[in-house]
């Protein structure tokens, strides 16, 4: 019997099999680079950023190839409620790289990536929900809802995060005042939309859990994005409140500031709940722990929580949050290293097995 297309590629990845959420590894690695920069670990930050760039280009090529050579399969993903929201990982990954560039003063490349990310967000923000919900053949759609839906919120908040960083750069003389005001408006608007989308996705996921059985195979790593979406909302809010005052900011400042602190408390509360869910899945129900690309959906929230805590602690003068974020970074880095090593090992073993089979 011949091997499948997935098996004929190293670690099962190729244009025919690459999933919509493949950019999650870029998101995770990129946010670890941002966290390292915040902690003053410049060499580590540069190394992680370069890894993120390599992964970004790799998956960009695969997705472009898939769009040309496997167009029908890609369209099918767009109409699958369980997969379609993974396309938003491209937006978030692009904006995470833009944030890393902006953080080291590379404003022009940051603007270029932000333009790409913003444009993709606008297009996918309507295309994905329309394809996955209104025109999907899967009925009921609610049965296919999962943690990847929260990436919709993550992508939206990533727009806000980059817009705030670029607005700060403009305020320091890197662009016209009108551009800074526009970026500030985009940041506040994206933050508000992102919070609304989080609430919407939370309702859908809650209904899925209440109306349909949620088994151990269903409660997988992407559900960590429920916390990651909160964390990136905190980052966006914490960066917005330190912007130069504008009419829009003066109206929303107290709301954003208070909401960021409240969201941080909720995100912190979610971590033990998610760990307990992992215990229920892997220990109680004995679902094997093995590498899958979905694990990157857990790494990103861990790294983002660290960054969110550090930003919140600085913006709102909350030392305990900054302390937690600084120490949590090492937890996130350990998980990132474990998943990255597992991914590398699987890739090497798959390639070795393919060569042996063809010998």
TrEMBL record:
Recorded GO cellular component terms are: plasma membrane
Transmembrane annotation, as ranges: 12-37, 43-63, 84-101, 107-128, 149-171, 183-211, 223-242, 262-283, 295-313, 328-349
Keywords for this protein: Cell membrane, Membrane, Transmembrane, Transmembrane helix, Transport
Family to which this protein belongs: Belongs to the tellurite-resistance/dicarboxylate transporter (TDT) family.
Which subcellular locations apply to this protein?
Answer: Cell membrane
> Which GO terms label this protein's molecular function in UniProt?
sulfite transmembrane transporter activity
Positions the record marks as coiled coil are none
Pfam families hit by this protein = SLAC1 (PF03595)
Tell me what topology the record assigns in the membrane: Multi-pass membrane protein
State the PANTHER family in the record.
PTHR31686, SULFITE EFFLUX PUMP SSU1
For this protein, the record's InterPro entries field holds: SLAC1/Mae1/Ssu1/TehA, Sulfite_efflux_TDT, Voltage-dep_anion_channel_sf
Q: What is this protein called?
A: Tellurite resistance protein TehA-like permease
């Amino acid at each position: 019997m011949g091997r499948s297309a997935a098996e004929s590629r190293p670690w099962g990845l190729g244009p025919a099999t690459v999933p919509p959420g493949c950019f999650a590894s870029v998101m995770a690695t990129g946010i670890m680079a941002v966290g390292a920069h915040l902690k003053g670990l410049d060499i580590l930050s540069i190394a992680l950023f370069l890894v993120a760039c390599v992964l970004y280009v790799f998956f960009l090529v695969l997705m472009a190839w898939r769009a040309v050579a496997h167009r029908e399969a890609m369209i099918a993903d767009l109409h699958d409620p369980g997969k379609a929201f993974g396309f938003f990982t491209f937006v978030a990954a692009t904006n995470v790289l833009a944030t890393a560039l902006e953080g080291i003063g590379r404003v022009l490349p940051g603007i270029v990536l932000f333009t790409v990310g913003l444009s993709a967000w606008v297009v996918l923000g309507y295309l994905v929900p329309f394809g996955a919900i209104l025109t999907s053949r899967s009925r009921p759609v609610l049965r296919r809802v999962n943690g990847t839906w929260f990436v919709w919120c993550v992508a939206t908040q990533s727009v806000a995060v980059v817009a705030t960083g670029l607005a700060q750069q403009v305020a320091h003389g890197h662009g016209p005042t009108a551009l800074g005001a526009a970026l500030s408006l985009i940041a506040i608007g994206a933050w508000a939309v992102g919070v609304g989308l989080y609430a919407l996705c939370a309702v859908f996921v809650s209904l899925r859990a209440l109306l349909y059985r949620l088994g151990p195979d269903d409660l997988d790593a992407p559900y960590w994005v429920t916390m990651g979406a909160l964390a990136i909302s905190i980052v966006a809010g914490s960066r917005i409140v330190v912007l130069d005052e504008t009419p829009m900011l003066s109206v929303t400042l107290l709301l954003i500031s208070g909401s960021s602190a409240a969201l941080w408390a909720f995100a912190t509360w979610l971590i033990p709940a998610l760990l307990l869910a992992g215990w229920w899945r892997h220990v109680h129900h004995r679902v094997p722990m093995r590498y899958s690309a979905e694990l990157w959906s857990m790494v990103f929230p861990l790294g983002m929580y660290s960054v969110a805590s550090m930003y919140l602690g600085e913006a709102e003068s909350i030392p305990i949050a900054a302390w937690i974020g600084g120490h949590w970074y090492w937890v996130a880095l350990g998980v990132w290293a474990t998943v990255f090593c597992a991914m590398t090992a699987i890739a090497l073993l798959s390639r070795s097995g393919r060569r042996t089979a063809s010998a």
